UniProtKB/TrEMBL annotation:
The lineage of its organism: Bacteria, Pseudomonadati, Pseudomonadota, Gammaproteobacteria, Oceanospirillales. Belongs to the BI1 family. It holds the Pfam family Bax1-I. This is Carrier/transport protein. It comes from Alcanivorax jadensis T9. The chain crosses the membrane at residues 30-48, 54-71, 78-99, 111-132, 139-160, 166-184, 196-219. It is a multi-pass membrane protein. InterPro entries: Bax_inhibitor_1-related (IPR006214). It comes from the Bacteria.
Amino acid sequence: MNNQTNPYSVSSHGAAVTGERAAQVLKNTYMLLGLSLIVATGASWFAMASNIGFVNVWLTLGVYFGLLFATNMLRNSAWGILAVFGLTGWLGFTTGPIINMYAQMPGGMETVTMALGGTAGIFVAMSAIALVTKKDFSFMTNFIMVGILVAFVAAIANIFFAIPALALAISAAFVLLSSMLILWQTSAIIHGGETNYIMATVTLFVSLYNLFMSLLHLLTALGGDD
């Protein structure tokens, strides 16, 4: 008789533990993401109600990356949650004046509502694909990261060149890349590739932010108001 330990029983136990851990990370991520959206919405509403002017783009980026760095450093402590709220609140606050600008255009509020609906719809669809199929989308990592880097550099360059066609192409790229990033991040959580819910929340929130802003720009342009 073979008295060796059955490797499949060990693997099965490990898979069960990994599954439980992944489920907890996913639950914590969605809870923190929901709270972050509330914080961002409140900050945006405050900026809109107070008629805050546009925040300088370099200040916006500087504070954003500073808070992103702080969140990464504090990701394993309770302070990391406060850093997430600081990051999402800042993005919400700086978005308020932009939404005010779009809202003042003909049919602007309808466009904002459509962008919000589109963002929610894409998030639900991409999350559902990852959760239902349980497919590992880690193979998309390099494409997404390189694509985001190229799109970000192009966006920075277009601040100086201000080419409308390039701006539309960048927005379209961010819609695609942000959608893929939601799919990729959700897959990483359920497969144990991402075990830190704070960083997972930041990734999903930034994806939603970029998705919303890009859809808002594209829908406005298609409506002939950009």
